[in-house]
Design brief:
Elements (H helix, E strand, L loop, with lengths): L1 E2 L4 E2 L1 E2 L4 E2 L6 H16 L6 E11 L5 E11 L4 E7 L5 E5 L4
Antiparallel strand pairs: 1-2, 3-4, 5-6, 6-7, 7-8
Length: 98
Protein backbone atom coordinates (compact mmCIF):
# COMPACT_ATOMS: atom_id res chain seq x y z
CA UNK A 1 0.00 0.00 0.00
CA UNK A 2 1.41 3.39 -0.97
CA UNK A 3 0.23 6.93 -0.43
CA UNK A 4 -0.35 8.98 -3.57
CA UNK A 5 -1.31 12.59 -4.17
CA UNK A 6 -4.97 11.56 -4.44
CA UNK A 7 -5.19 8.84 -1.79
CA UNK A 8 -3.73 5.32 -1.60
CA UNK A 9 -2.87 2.58 -4.07
CA UNK A 10 -2.53 -1.16 -3.41
CA UNK A 11 0.04 -3.06 -5.49
CA UNK A 12 -0.59 -6.80 -5.86
CA UNK A 13 2.84 -8.28 -6.56
CA UNK A 14 1.41 -11.78 -7.00
CA UNK A 15 -0.59 -10.79 -10.07
CA UNK A 16 1.49 -7.72 -10.98
CA UNK A 17 -1.54 -5.45 -10.78
CA UNK A 18 -2.49 -2.35 -8.89
CA UNK A 19 -5.63 -0.51 -7.89
CA UNK A 20 -6.64 3.03 -8.80
CA UNK A 21 -4.51 5.55 -6.91
CA UNK A 22 -7.39 7.36 -5.18
CA UNK A 23 -8.52 4.78 -2.60
CA UNK A 24 -9.38 5.91 0.92
CA UNK A 25 -6.85 4.71 3.50
CA UNK A 26 -9.25 2.27 5.21
CA UNK A 27 -10.31 0.76 1.87
CA UNK A 28 -6.68 0.37 0.80
CA UNK A 29 -5.70 -1.23 4.13
CA UNK A 30 -8.62 -3.67 3.92
CA UNK A 31 -7.80 -4.66 0.33
CA UNK A 32 -4.09 -5.04 1.11
CA UNK A 33 -4.88 -7.28 4.10
CA UNK A 34 -7.17 -9.47 1.98
CA UNK A 35 -4.60 -9.83 -0.81
CA UNK A 36 -1.88 -10.57 1.73
CA UNK A 37 -4.00 -13.30 3.33
CA UNK A 38 -4.67 -14.91 -0.04
CA UNK A 39 -1.02 -14.89 -1.13
CA UNK A 40 0.37 -16.05 2.21
CA UNK A 41 -1.96 -19.07 2.16
CA UNK A 42 0.21 -20.33 -0.69
CA UNK A 43 -2.52 -21.47 -3.06
CA UNK A 44 -5.56 -20.25 -4.98
CA UNK A 45 -8.23 -18.93 -2.62
CA UNK A 46 -11.81 -18.25 -3.64
CA UNK A 47 -13.17 -16.42 -0.61
CA UNK A 48 -11.88 -14.60 2.45
CA UNK A 49 -13.85 -14.19 5.66
CA UNK A 50 -12.33 -11.91 8.30
CA UNK A 51 -13.31 -12.62 11.88
CA UNK A 52 -12.69 -11.06 15.25
CA UNK A 53 -9.51 -12.64 16.64
CA UNK A 54 -10.45 -15.56 18.85
CA UNK A 55 -8.53 -18.09 20.88
CA UNK A 56 -8.45 -21.61 19.46
CA UNK A 57 -7.20 -24.94 20.71
CA UNK A 58 -5.51 -27.66 18.69
CA UNK A 59 -6.92 -31.20 18.59
CA UNK A 60 -4.82 -31.95 21.67
CA UNK A 61 -6.83 -29.22 23.42
CA UNK A 62 -3.86 -27.00 24.15
CA UNK A 63 -3.73 -23.30 23.26
CA UNK A 64 -2.81 -22.99 19.58
CA UNK A 65 -3.03 -19.24 18.94
CA UNK A 66 -5.42 -16.71 17.50
CA UNK A 67 -7.47 -16.93 14.29
CA UNK A 68 -7.83 -13.69 12.36
CA UNK A 69 -9.01 -14.88 8.95
CA UNK A 70 -10.77 -17.85 7.33
CA UNK A 71 -10.10 -18.66 3.65
CA UNK A 72 -12.25 -20.90 1.46
CA UNK A 73 -10.65 -23.03 -1.24
CA UNK A 74 -13.39 -24.32 -3.55
CA UNK A 75 -10.96 -26.69 -5.31
CA UNK A 76 -10.63 -28.66 -2.06
CA UNK A 77 -14.06 -27.62 -0.76
CA UNK A 78 -12.84 -26.63 2.69
CA UNK A 79 -12.09 -23.64 4.90
CA UNK A 80 -8.60 -22.89 6.22
CA UNK A 81 -7.85 -20.62 9.18
CA UNK A 82 -4.74 -18.49 9.68
CA UNK A 83 -3.59 -19.11 13.28
CA UNK A 84 -0.88 -16.97 14.88
CA UNK A 85 0.73 -18.24 18.09
CA UNK A 86 2.15 -16.13 20.93
CA UNK A 87 5.61 -16.12 19.29
CA UNK A 88 4.16 -14.68 16.06
CA UNK A 89 4.47 -17.92 14.03
CA UNK A 90 1.70 -18.35 11.46
CA UNK A 91 0.17 -21.70 10.60
CA UNK A 92 -2.65 -22.50 8.18
CA UNK A 93 -5.04 -25.00 9.79
CA UNK A 94 -7.92 -26.79 8.04
CA UNK A 95 -11.23 -25.97 9.65
CA UNK A 96 -11.79 -29.64 10.38
CA UNK A 97 -8.72 -29.60 12.67
CA UNK A 98 -10.08 -26.78 14.83
Amino acid sequence: MQRTADGYVVVDLASVACTPDDLAQDAAESLAAELNAMVSAGHRIDAVRWVLPQQVRAATWCPAGVIDVWLYDKNCDHWVARVTDDAGRVEWCPGSDL
